[in-house]
Amino acid sequence: MSTPLIILIVLAIILVLMYNSLVAKKNQVDNIFASVDTQLKKRYDLIPNLVASVSKYMEHEKSILQEVTKLRADANKPNISDKQKIALDAQVTSALGSIMIAVENYPELKANENVMHLQSSLNEVEEQISAARRAYNQAVTDYNNAIEMIPTNFMANIMNYREKEVFVISEGERTNVDVKELFN
């Protein structure tokens, strides 16, 4: 076998390996995002029950309930982008947190068995969403590294692969909790 032919075969193997690696990373990101999407869907399915359970008690917080309902409707629209889903997730997380804080002001509501069950279900779903977000962010980091690093960035550019966004927490979630304030 001639030297140029061996070099050509080695080069072809390297290109195939790079191509396959990029496709695998892209598919992993898509697969894990589908897991996140499934968990978000579970959360969005719980929201109408939560809103129905708390709405008769929380007349003063009607705007929060309307906001959550609107965000849920937005999240269920067809053909929204991954970027929009990530943004809606942050908004829904914030709005649900507001509802849970407001529930604390209504002792009857807090003791309601249906609301307690919904809170428990939501907590479980939130933990699953959190785990799925971590897996997604790791897959996106691996994918983004692959499309930015040499030599796979050349192949990624040819394949028209673009950087993906990770889930980030909102500014409100970054601030430290004032424990004193919670007990006042």
UniProtKB/TrEMBL annotation:
Family designation? Belongs to the LemA family.
Give the Pfam families listed for this entry. LemA (PF04011)
Q: Name one GO cellular component term.
A: membrane
Q: Which domain of life is it from?
A: Bacteria
Q: Which residues form a coiled coil?
A: 108-142
Q: Where in the cell is it found?
A: Membrane
This chain belongs to the protein called LemA family protein
Q: What is the organism of origin for this protein?
A: Sulfurimonas aquatica
Membrane topology listed for this record? Single-pass membrane protein
Keywords (A to Z) from UniProt: Coiled coil, Membrane, Transmembrane, Transmembrane helix
Major place of residence: membrane
* Gene3D superfamilies for the chain: LemA-like domain
Instruction: Read off the SUPFAM superfamilies from this record.
Output: LemA-like
